[in-house]
Design goal:
The structure holds 2 protein chains of 2 kinds.
Chain A: H1 12-22, E1 29-38, E2 41-51, E3 55-59, H2 66-73, E4 81-86, H3 94-102, E5 104-107, H4 119-129, H5 135-148, H6 164-176, E6 182-186, H7 194-205, E7 212-216, H8 220-226, E8 229-234, E9 237-242, H9 244-249, E10 255-258, E11 267-270, E12 276-279, E13 288-289, H10 294-302
Parallel strand pairs in A: 3-7, 3-8, 5-6, 6-7
Antiparallel strand pairs in A: 1-2, 1-4, 8-9, 10-12, 10-13, 11-12
Chain B: H1 13-20, H2 26-35, H3 40-49, H4 52-66, H5 73-80, H6 85-92, H7 99-122, H8 124-133, H9 151-156, H10 159-169, H11 177-182, H12 187-212, H13 219-237, H14 243-265, H15 274-293
Helix pairs in contact in B: 1-3, 5-6, 7-12, 10-12, 10-13, 10-14, 12-13, 13-14, 13-15
Chain lengths: 312, 304
């Protein structure tokens, strides 16, 4: 595996503090020409991105490279080529990788846990991995994240007896331990019911310390609701980076309503009021055009609704 | 907050306030608590001073602590030995320290020892040789290859700690591997702490099995150095290749060496003689040096 090139490497702690200062004015996450392969499969293909503070949504179909990108940002995997700056630190250097991990909350797509763990024991274990060794401080932190994810009443339950949604909340709880500066959340709302999803949005909105949040999801409406920026990955490449409103604008002039399914539509479905909502590149003359949503923009961008899959 | 007067001859408002704020020492707090059930005035004064948010936080901490399960036999034993609480919690989650793993390990060793005993009992010459002078050689009777019955034990017993180390650090066997990888905990520290614990735990059954063999008592000691050398070699190689590949490579190499030495000397224990012990010591020293030199290379996921 090829290590990242880093010209003019600085001394550990000096580099760390210097790097931290850089994020005050510049981007918090900088990804430059990152490529990652698994055998012959190219999961990330020359990806470059710059992201600032706020909540960033990562959209894309299965296999688009979202999980790979988040794994690299969470320092769980390394890129084959390219370089990164996370919170001003270079993960290619062991000392700076440690600084990233001290500021990181990570929810992987598959939350692994030992079979005998209760909710509290699991959080206790992760808190120790996060260097919270003082039991008084650690248990107070456990109580805080349990309360914020509404899991206090389940503290003594074995994880294997929890529902999928509860496990997802537990995953979120462990990511929040230590009030991280950077939250990397892979499918955080997967398995959550509508009320829990709303509570998740509320939780994200109330996070102390203005952390950077990067969340991968299939739920476009969650992105619209809470994210200040959105990135769309398709086949390992960044096809869009902008605001949810700009994503919606990609479908401008391509969404219309009709009493019957329109033959010119690439994608159409009957809405609750009985009318058909059509998405396509060629609306008929005099069509009842509607304001597109971010979901419409995503469908156009991904090629599912008449787009060419390329960002204009 | 000002201290309102308390209509009580025993406790002053200041003491009640200190108790409510958690500023009393343990003895004074117990005195207040003994007094409270019989004094409505003090209870009323105390209720007025209690911070609801703090109460809720305390309740949440109590519930969180109550949810911590029994740490298990290994963690309890470690705590009794003076191991810090957070290290005992980490080690309690190590697969090779858990009872089921140790039970399986004892079963395998019992089978190997039983087979060895059977081989010796079927060959009176071998049995007599073993039982006689305690000489450290398991010589086959003329024209017999029954001494090969001991070979599996000599291969497997020193490998038990190696297997324990591999399970302790293997991403495949650690379900929380990705969380561990993304955490700031030092991977070399975690690796060493887990390794020392599982080597200690697995050497005990291996030594008991060695004592059960029809041979000299110090056979158990002769297994120690090769076992430690293998564990250290696997850890050292884990700085270069993935941990499981490192452990598998060392296990394969050990099997080849012991078998080749046994065939060459026509003695199952040939690899455990003075030359074998000296070689194991050299390998152990080299492996420890490799670990120290490349300690920053031990990291989950991020290679470089």
């Amino acid at each position: 595996m090829k290590a990242l090139a880093r010209p003019g490497a600085l001394d550990g702690s000096a580099a760390a503090s210097a790097a931290k200062e850089r994020t005050d004015s510049g981007p918090v996450l900088r990804i430059e020409h990152v490529t990652r392969r698994y055998g012959r499969t190219v999961a990330l293909d020359n990806v470059s991105l710059e992201l600032g503070r706020g909540i960033v949504g990562l959209l894309g179909p299965n296999g688009a490279g979202k999980t790979t990108l988040l794994s690299i940002l969470a320092t769980v995997a390394s890129p084959d080529a390219g370089r990164l700056s996370v919170l001003g630190y270079d993960p290619a250097l062991a000392s700076e990788r440690l600084e990233i991990r001290r500021r990181l909350g990570y929810l992987p797509q598959d939350l692994g846990y030992h079979r005998h763990f209760t909710v509290s024991a699991f959080l206790d274990y992760v808190a120790i991995l996060k260097e919270l060794t003082d039991s008084r401080i650690r248990h107070a932190e456990l109580a805080r994240v349990l309360a914020s994810t509404d899991l206090t009443a389940l503290a003594g339950k074995r994880i294997r007896t929890l529902s999928g949604g509860m496990r997802r909340r537990l995953g979120l709880a462990q990511a929040l331990l230590g009030s991280p500066d950077l939250l990397v959340l892979d499918e955080p709302v997967s398995g959550l019911d509508p009320e829990q999803r709303l509570r998740f949005r509320e939780l994200l909105s109330q996070l102390p310390g203005d952390p950077v949040v990067l969340l991968a999801t299939h739920q476009v409406e969650d992105v619209t609701a809470v994210c200040s920026a959105v990135v769309v990955l398709l086949a390992g490449r960044v096809r869009f980076a902008g605001t949810p409103a700009e994503l919606a604008d990609l479908a401008s002039g391509r969404v219309w309503l009709s009493p019957e399914r329109h033959a010119g539509a690439e994608l159409s479905w009957r809405a609750g009021d009985g009318r058909w909502r059509n998405i396509g590149p060629l609306p008929p003359a005099g069509a009842d055009m509607v304001t597109p949503t971010a979901e419409d923009g995503y469908l156009v961008l991904s090629g599912a609704a008449g787009g060419n899959g390329a960002h204009p | 907050m000002t201290n309102s007067p308390v209509d009580c001859a025993v406790l002053s408002a200041a003491v009640v306030a200190s108790y409510a704020d958690g500023r009393l020492d343990a003895a004074a707090a117990w005195s207040v608590e003994a007094h409270l059930p019989g004094c409505p005035a003090c209870r009323t004064a105390l209720s007025a001073r209690v911070d609801a948010d703090r109460l809720a936080r305390n309740r949440a901490v109590v519930l969180a602590r109550a949810g911590l399960h029994d740490p298990g036999l290994a963690a309890r034993a470690l705590r009794r030995c003076g191991v810090p609480e957070h290290i005992a919690v980490l080690l309690g989650a190590t697969p090779s320290l858990r009872r089921s793993w140790l039970a399986g390990l004892l079963l395998v060793l019992a089978i190997v020892v039983g087979a060895t005993q059977l081989a010796a009992s079927l060959n009176p010459a071998v049995a007599q040789n073993l039982g006689g002078g305690g000489q450290f050689s398991v010589v086959a009777a003329a024209g017999s290859a029954r001494w090969l019955g001991l070979l599996p034990f000599f291969i497997l017993a020193p490998m038990v700690p190696l297997a324990a180390v591999a399970t302790a650090f293997s991403p495949v066997l650690d379900p929380a591997y990705r969380l561990t990888a993304a955490a700031p905990v030092s991977k070399i520290w975690l690796l060493c702490v887990r390794s020392v614990a599982v080597i200690g735990a697995s050497l005990v059954p291996a030594a008991i099995a060695a004592l059960a063999l029809p041979g000299p008592w110090w056979l158990a000691l002769a297994l120690l150095l090769p076992a430690l050398a293998m564990c250290a070699s696997a850890l050292g190689l884990a700085t270069v290749v993935p941990p499981l590949a490192a452990a598998a490579g060392v296990a394969a190499g050990w099997t080849a060496v012991v078998t080749a030495a046994a065939l060459a000397a026509n003695t199952a224990s040939a690899a455990f003689g003075p030359a074998g012990q000296a070689t194991a010591a050299v390998v152990l020293a080299a492996a420890i040096t490799l670990i120290l030199v490349r300690r920053n290379k031990i990291d989950y996921g991020w290679m470089g």
